[in-house]
Amino acid sequence: MENLFLAPEHVLQGGYFQETLRKLQEPNTSIEPHNLMYPVFLLENEDGFQSVSSMPNVYRYGINKLIPALKELVEKGLKSILIFGIVETLEKDATGTNADSPENPVVKALPNLRAALPQLLLAVDVCLCPYTSHGHCGLLTDKGVIDHANSVKRISEVALAYAKAGAHIVAPSDMMDNRIKGIKDALVANRLQNQVSVLSYSCKFASSMYGPFRDTMKSSPMAGDRKCYQLPPGSAGLAMRAACRDVAEGADFLMVKPGLPYLDIVRQTKDKFPQHPLFIYQVSGEYAMICRSGDDREVETILMETLTCMRRAGADCIITYFTPLILSIISRKH
């Protein structure tokens, strides 16, 4: 006993020996419905319904199937969604013409979603890759490299179209320099700056964990990769510069993507910009891994530990395909 460290700073277990005391040691880690955003995949076919083979319990919906599914989740507490449009029959071309055409499934669905679910926060992913023939997130020059100025112009046009159609949040995921300013300028010019927010995929890394998502969206590049505009996985400094850039250009919210492997980036971003709500995207590869981690009980335990760590690191909202399951877990606890 004489050799034990008994100074106050060494005696810790008196502070967490009971469940309520342990909760007091975990500030800012609660998981409530407003801390979740549910990604949904929207089909052209309004009555379509497709399962995603690489992502258990994830589906692609036509709007007539999506609204009833969302109504059930809203009754369980769902507060926000992130919409991804999928085209199967509309033509894909070099400039992504159908990213904002009147026939685009997102453009068509937004007014219906606003009418059917008036309290649900609607965010829309803004990118060209699902709609371009080359599968890249920006426009290309004749030499096959990113055409920066025209990419920003086109992405701003698409964001504005979604804003006019009824999106509460436009979320550019392309990682082009200056696209936040381009979008903000477009919103201001159309007097929408106080009705539509900009959620920037600020720190989006060139990760190997997007495979199931790209399979779902059919959005992989036809040639090359996205490493010239997505961040290298080891680049904490570049991630900070990207977040600083987007804040300077007027982003309302910031994001780190993927999630769990990049919690250090979440922490450094939140420390630098505590006044900006911070989103984290638990991507398709993370989802698939957790789904394979054991039986239902083990999956739930690992999932909630993971979400708690994301909140601890500084995330205010977690974009996750597990949202329906998490809402059920929250409901059981309450």
Structure report:
With 334 residues, the protein is of the alpha/beta class. Helices cover 38% and strands 15% of the residues. It has helices at residues 19-24, 63-75, 105-116, 148-165, 179-189, 211-217, 236-249, 263-272, 284-291, 296-313, 323-333; strands at residues 36-42, 49-51, 59-61, 80-85, 121-126, 169-172, 197-204, 253-257, 278-282, 317-320. Strands 1-4-5-6-7-8-9-10 form an eight-stranded parallel beta barrel, surrounded by seven helices. Helix 4 (148-165) crosses helix 5 and helix 7 crosses helix 8 (263-272). It is globular, with a radius of gyration of 21 Å. The model has no long low-confidence stretch (mean pLDDT 92).
Class from secondary-structure proportions: alpha/beta
The number of helical elements comes to 11
Average pLDDT metric:
92
Shape: globular
Largest sheet: 8 strands, parallel, barrel
Can you list the strand order of the major beta sheet? 1-4-5-6-7-8-9-10
Element string (H = helix, E = strand): HEEEHEHEHEHEHHEHEHHEH
Rg calc = 21 Å
Number of strands: 10
Q: Termini separation (Å)? A: 44 Å
Measured as a percent range, the helix fraction is 25-40%
Sheet-strand content, in percent, reads 15-25%
Low-confidence segments, given as residue ranges, are: none
